[in-house]
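Consider one such protein record:
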Amino acid sequence: AYIGARLRQARLMRDISQKELGQRIKKPISFQQVQKYEHGTNRISVVLLQEFADAMHLPMGFFLPDQDI
């Protein structure tokens, strides 16, 4: 759910629609699928998350919570 919320935040920061984001990745997906990822209904694979990050010109770390180790 956290990563989905960050995905939505990044998309809105970049002023990109769900449809446009879905079309920017290697294997295009529907806006409904993007919506499911943002709401945490479906899990996002690391590979797909990297594609989203690349499509929005963001580092992968943007989507991950800060970890104190």
About this structure: The helical segments are 2-13, 18-24, 31-39, 46-55. The chain has a mean pLDDT of 93. The chain is about 55% helix and 0% strand.
